[in-house]
Amino acid sequence: xxxxxxxxxxxxxxxxxxxxxxxxxxxxxxxxxxxxxxxxxxxxxxxxxxxxxxxxxxxxxxxxxxxxxxxxxxxxxxxxxxxxxxxxxxxxxxxxxxxxxxxxx
Length: 105
What we know:
By secondary structure, this protein is an alpha/beta fold. It has a single domain (18-100), classed as Rossmann fold (3-Layer(aba) Sandwich), CATH 3.40.50. Helix content is 22%, strand content 17%. The protein contains three helices and five strands, in the order βαβαβαββ. Strands 3-2-1-4-5 form a five-stranded parallel beta sheet. Helix 1 (25-36) links the parallel strand 1 (18-21) and strand 2 (41-44). The longest helix is centred in the N-terminal third of the chain and has 12 residues, at 25-36. The chain is globular. The termini are close together.
């Protein structure tokens, strides 16, 4: 397996939203950067949408909270959960999506 590390990134413009599975330090930061650039984001976590009300409020009108299924309806999905947790995400939900997984081995 090859890992490529970038010190910064640029998101290619898309009319689609960006879904987040995990909204902690990494997911929350990437979601903030995305909304600052005008992207709609859908945040999800294992505790449910209700637990995301504060971060959604902080991110503004372009952010919403949903389930993992809601987040995977976006064309781009950021999987920002602990590395071992990837097995808990149903693979069929990610089929055909651009998947960003900022894992650190």
